[in-house]
Amino acid sequence: MDQFLQLIVAGLATGAIYALAAIGFTLVWQTSQTINFAQGEFVMLPAILVLTAAHLGLPMGLAFIVGSAAFVLLFGFGFKRFLVEPMQRHGVLPLAIATMALSVLIKEAAKNGFSAEAQPFPSLVPEGSVSVLGAAVSVRDIAIFVVAIAAILGLQAFITHTRTGRTMQATAQNPTVARILGVPVERMILLTFLINAALALIASYLISPVYLAKFSNGETIGLAAFIAAIVGGFNQIRGALAGGFLIGLIDNLAAAYVSSAYRTAVPLVVLVVVILVKPEGLLGRKEERTV
Amino acid sequence: MSRKLNTDLLIILIAVPILWFAPSGLKSYGLYVVSLWLVMSIAAMGLNLTLGYAGLTSLAQGAFLGIGAYATAILTAKAGWPLPAAFLVSTGLSFLVGVVLGFPALRVKHHYLAFVTLAFSVVVFLVARNEQWLTGGVYGLANIPRPVLFGTDLGGGLAFYRTVLVVTLALTLVMWWLLHSPWGRAFQALRENPLRAASLGVDIRAYTLLAFAIGSAFGGAAGSLYAPLVEFIDPAPFALSASFVLLLTVVAGGAGSFFGPFVGAFFSYMLPELLRATGGWYLIIYAAVVLVLVMVSPTGLLGLIDRWRDHQSQRRAAAIRAAARPTLASADKPTLENQGAAP
């Protein structure tokens, strides 16, 4: 039972990270039909940028600021402006392929430009564990969970309770009508890309102290984020949230109770089953098709 | 259309003798690189059928390459089968797995298929890494024999390269025949407008499945040649990124163009070997070039050439029109001027 509780907490912490990445993924999909295959690399990179800035002699606090600013500028604004915008008229597939090339590019650049080895990343939370219902639960896991949830709730509040947020929703649901009603559609789309970058940033700073900063981290996280987004529902934020937690829990429980060698395979099986049984995702809406 | 058929065949006819004789001066490493190019062209050709002609996004071609390679390695190195038999079994196995995996393709479309095949790729990789009794796990399988046919040893660098060339030629012709058969035209109808294809009586389910399975079989065939080429396989070359690179290869060459896979494979598999001096930076250069290429011309390198040719012929037509206009004017003008001058 102790072990089970620990697994649940660890699963929720991992799930919160996946949810952050998955929510960014669905936001970008909703507003601009971008399937971002580089999403995992987006989560891997900020930590590397911060460490690079620190290596260049900046104090850690400043390195965080510089790294974050560089990342949001490059992969929030730059990604939208210089990759998505020119590619969009070619359709979903060429754009997806371009993001695949981008993912290879980021990964290799991090490997060659920074380090092929895993590097320690400063943790904002002390290590240690507290006893919850008789089980030793890592403080870090709790902190990850709390921070991620706070970020997601903040985002949710922004989207549903502010004018800008509702305008963003309108853009996602029907860009043409939104434009007619005077919504600055392009600016709203840019905003979702900035939010995506910010979510990736948070996820990166939360996960890197645990997994260490390494160029290949994005593979696992990216895969989990896809699965979470699709399982939960490609067109719903709460779907991505639920999917993230589900995959995080399944991932941790499978590692303990099924087989550590095949832990990655279990979420994949869930993915395939969901796609076959309910392709719009567990919480998703069906997308209507017109001839 | 029929002139296009002849050009394709003509290119094959010219290319084969060149490819047969040209590399004879190469050292074993050079021969390895050229052979690798052909092998990967076969895999890319299969994916080109799936993606470029039938319009199905598959992220599993690297996995099929792996299935073919492991099947061949196990059958020849462990069970002692001759390569041709192992080749047929590997190709057939990939076809069957393609049919089984293709069933999801009947239910889901677009990007969902990419995700199903992505999941499949990861699972194949995990099996290759974890099932040590069968695949050797991370230690891989060594001593994969090269073929001996009718008592002739085809294991030397040049002899094996030529064997690969002959197989590539055969598979290229099969692909050519396939694309120009009614099947091939049905595949293209599927890509262009599945609904219209269905209303014209094309059985979408059967053809989707067939396109996917045949594409997969080509992947398996490539893997079956890859194993004896490298003589040692481990799971790494068949990871998900291999499928990504194969997809980029097809797109870079020009999805849906007949020789696109060869151009793309040259770009993805031969240039890295030639540019080894740049070290790890090659992949960065490669990814950046592909990124720019996809943005500039989503139809790939051959699409770029086509566009240039269109542009040239338009300019030529414009030049002819421009040249024709003064003649009309000069025929008219003097009369006008004469009229003007007369009074």
Automatic annotation (TrEMBL), chain A:
Pfam family, one: BPD_transp_2
Subcellular location: Cell membrane
GO CC, any one term: plasma membrane
InterPro entries linked to this entry: ABC_transp_permease (IPR001851), BCAA_transport_permease (IPR052157)
CDD domains: TM_PBP1_LivH_like
Transmembrane segments: 6-28, 60-79, 91-110, 130-159, 188-208, 220-241, 253-277
Topology relative to the membrane: Multi-pass membrane protein
Chief location category: membrane
Molecular function per GO: transmembrane transporter activity
UniProt keyword annotations, A-Z: Amino-acid transport, Cell membrane, Membrane, Transmembrane, Transmembrane helix, Transport
PANTHER family: ABC TRANSPORTER PERMEASE PROTEIN, BRANCHED-CHAIN AMINO ACID TRANSPORT SYSTEM PERMEASE PROTEIN LIVH
Family: Belongs to the binding-protein-dependent transport system permease family. LivHM subfamily.
Protein name from the UniProt record: Branched-chain amino acid ABC transporter permease
Phylogenetic placement of the source organism: Bacteria, Pseudomonadati, Pseudomonadota, Alphaproteobacteria, Rhodospirillales
UniProtKB/TrEMBL annotation, chain B:
Top-rank taxon, per record: Bacteria
Localization terms from the record: Cell membrane
Membrane topology: Multi-pass membrane protein
An annotated Gene Ontology molecular function: branched-chain amino acid transmembrane transporter activity
Keywords on record: Cell membrane, Membrane, Transmembrane, Transmembrane helix
InterPro entries recorded: ABC_transp_permease, LivM-like
Signal peptide: none
Any Pfam family: BPD_transp_2
Keyword Transferase: no
Keyword Cell membrane attributed: yes
GO cellular component terms listed in the entry, alphabetical order: plasma membrane
Transmembrane segments: 7-23, 29-51, 63-81, 87-105, 112-128, 159-179, 206-226, 238-271, 283-305
Protein name: Branched-chain amino acid ABC transporter permease
Organism: Azospirillum griseum
Taxonomic path: Bacteria, Pseudomonadati, Pseudomonadota, Alphaproteobacteria, Rhodospirillales
